[in-house]
């Protein structure tokens, strides 16, 4: 659910001072210590009792420039040890070139109820330290002292930021419930922000008021709109498997700068249309200019294109060449850090360096190549109503061959042609063409994730099954498996660790094919051995046939999920087991044969096992025919998994009839 507000629609009501209704630090009473979490969430380990924040623009006395001042104040009740982590605070501070944010005026204390009175433990300043996460982010961390069951922690701080475009977002929802969350934004009348409320919950209250002469710039007094947003009794946001960025779904207030009315009467637009953004990106020396560098590859093309016969083979040859030439430095980006020439010379670069090089090389091979800017799954969805370039954090290549188009990311040597990494499968991307208007494109998995296992074996007189287990993987299943194998120094080391992770099964020999031939399925073959006698009665065999990818835990445990289930791609897993038995065995007990499905053809699970002509056969299939399931389909998925898990708890028992 989204709500859209604009500052031009605010009714200016009355004159208010800039002092918003913050609460007094350290004013802890018995009612707060005795707060009953059942009023909001009986399962909560901690609860935000009060949370208050303000944001405003002011002139920095030291530099004379306009900065954003953000004040944050919170009081949290901790109920048990599982809630102690709330006392470990991390505040990210961002950098953009020489501009950076600073944290100031930190005050933090823990309060415990002792002999009928609150006792304060003030945090020592030595508990504060900084961690340089990247060249763009510094993490300020601190831990409150003397945490016990029933403690109340309280802290407040101030952040000064030169980054004005996104003002300061406010998260009404977090990983613990909140009794009251209030945010007040003071926005100068000459600044127009688009204000967006994301998430499932609506505001409990909001107010729009005027604050006279809140800002003075070059001798001119400017009024502000005082905007108050309140949410009460907000449940915790619980993250589960198979979701994109939590920021897509948490209830939060976002601000994006649209335009500024300058004091000389002119207007500076920050929210543009795609036509003007296209021009900016094509003219940008770190993006459009790099797409034009065909000259860097012109002399190399004859060698790169050796033995190619058509445009598709040419594109694959260029793609494989770039994958080998530049190593990814693990930084995302839609802009080249320096230039693709520098990346080629140093053989090192960020995402954009690599994929802009790929686009230029494809163009040098006379192929139709374009750039696609996107937002990764952990970065959140982009605004589709108007261009906000800061929301895009990644760039890939698109090559058009005949009637087909292929999306390419050359950052990982194990990615086959046409398969984007899962981090890129997130809604839509914007295609940037040097000669045509930009347009949206769906970011979908080009291949489904396919896995098949075949075990052919024989039960010997020693009570052991010996046989050959072969697995074949395609798409993301193969990519992920190759990544796992490559973590080790050799295939032998990988198999050794695999053998250790399978206590009931012993690997005697192995062969793994096509590890580096990423365009082909990955094939793994293992000679295996495992015992099935119960140790007392040799005539009775206990076999759990679900030793291959057994589903032991339901990934879906919420009573309700307000955001979709995003698997990334459709998938198909099949398991076939055939075991030759000695003469005269019959099935005594087995998992129930199943054929269950999800509504509207969304997926299915099939299981069938038989003993016939001294051969045990088991066939299992698990299919998910959609990459994304809506929140309305969540309970069907939950029940689907529950039925499979329950059935897989049953052993297969075979008894000799001799």
Automatic annotation (TrEMBL):
What InterPro entries does this protein's entry cite? Papain-like_cys_pep_sf, Transglutaminase-like
| Keyword terms of this UniProt record | Signal
* Xref: Gene3D superfamilies: 2.60.120.1130, 2.60.40.3140, 3.10.620.30
Give the residue range of the signal peptide: 1-20
User: Which stretches make up the Transglutaminase-like domain?
Assistant: 300-381
Entries under Pfam families matching the protein: Transglut_core (PF01841)
Q: Which domain of life is it from?
A: Bacteria
Q: What is this protein called?
A: DUF3857 domain-containing protein
This chain's source organism reads Pedobacter cryotolerans
